[in-house]
Sequence to fold (220 residues):
Amino acid sequence: MITIRYFGSLKETIGRSTETLSISELESLTVLDVWHYVNGDFPLAENILTALNMDYVTRSHVVNDGDEVAFFPPVTGG
Amino acid sequence: MTIKICDVAFEPFSEIQTFQNALALNGKFGATSIFIGTMRDFNDGDDVQAMMLEHYDGMTQKQLTKMVTTTKSKWQILDFLIVHRIGEILPNEPIVLVAVWSAHRNEAFEACRYLMEELKANAPFWKLEKLATNQNRWVSKF
Fold:
């Protein structure tokens, strides 16, 4: 199972903060594949950042069972 | 090295004093560089009443720890203190504190600046402003 999390304005746009996705062991998904699995054709905007297990990754990074994937807009802390 | 994520208002100078008093570094540090970020009551031409600061719990701490490790590899630093607010923040309340202790000023100045810029660029926080018009607005970079 993959955990998917959304933050900031994207969380409001999507209307969810977290969800899970069950994948078979045979499937090899990228971060972008995960997005489309749960959001269909809804486009992943170019400025949205992606993290895997709390580290920044590119959208082509492979996701494994048990991973946590996050999508969020550019950060604005400090 | 201490990283604190704080959901209530904090007093930065007390934090610094308490941290420094606990350091076993008497006579070892010659420089302390401090950055304090404070909430304004205006932004982008609008009056702002309050701000909600959201973060990605776990990733925030992980990324800040990595930033400190990188900073330590670049400069000879004796110790660090980072405090960042989350939750509802009011104007004039501190948002962030970065303090760096080192033997000499150059390391302290440069490491503090570097760490603060890295935090702004990569630490997963998001600000939602509550405007005087009662509208909410996400702070965005683009």
Summary: Chain A has a mean pLDDT of 95.
